[in-house]
Amino acid sequence: MFVRTAVRTVARAAPRGSRASSADASAGDYFAKRDVVRAHAAEVTQLWRRISFYVCVPATVACALWVRNVEAEHAEHIEHIKAEHDGHLPDIPQYEYMNRRVKPYPWGMNSLFFNPHVNKDLSEE
User: Fold this and answer.
1) Which letter does DSSP use for residue 122 in this model?
2) Local structure of residue 93 (DSSP, 8 states)
3) Tens digits of per-residue pLDDT, 88-115?
4) How far apart, in whole angstroms, are the C-alpha atoms of residue 60 and residue 1?
5) Whole-number Å distance between alpha carbons of 88 and 65
6) What is the CB neighbour count within 10 angstroms for residue 110?
7) Would you report the helix, strand and coil content of the chain in percent, each value rounded to 5?
8) Assign residue 86 a region: left if phi > 0, alpha if psi is -120 to 50, beta otherwise?
9) What is the predicted pLDDT for the residue at 93?
10) For residue range 45-69, what is the model confidence (pLDDT) as tens digits?
11) Which of 67, 70, 74, 125 is nearest to 100 (CA)?
C-alpha cells in the first residue's frame, strides 16, 4: 500500500503534457511548428479544393444529365399513352386500399402536396 501511494505521488509531481515541455522550448521552435501547421493546412485546403472541382462538380453535372434523360423518357412515355387514349391518360383502377380518407385533413380531403395533373382529386367524391 505504501509503495502504491509513493508511485502516485511521484507520478503527480512529474511534469505532464505539452505545457511543461513548452516552457523549456525556444520561441523559434514554436514558430517553426506553427509554420509547419500552416503549410499542412494549405496543402490540405488545396487537396479538397481539387476534389471539389474535379470530382464533385462533374459528378453533380453527370447526375443532373442522367435525371434529365430519365425525365425526358418518362414524358415521352406519358405522351405515348395519351396518344393511344385520345389525348388523355386512362383512368387509374379504383382499388379499395388506395386513397382512403376516413377523416379529412383540416384543409380538405387532398394532401398539402396535391397536384391536379398527377393526383386524384378526392374532394370531388
Assistant:
1) G
2) P
3) 888 888 888 887 778 888 888 888 898 8
4) 66
5) 29
6) 19
7) 65, 0, 35
8) left
9) 83
10) 999 999 999 999 999 999 999 999 9
11) 125
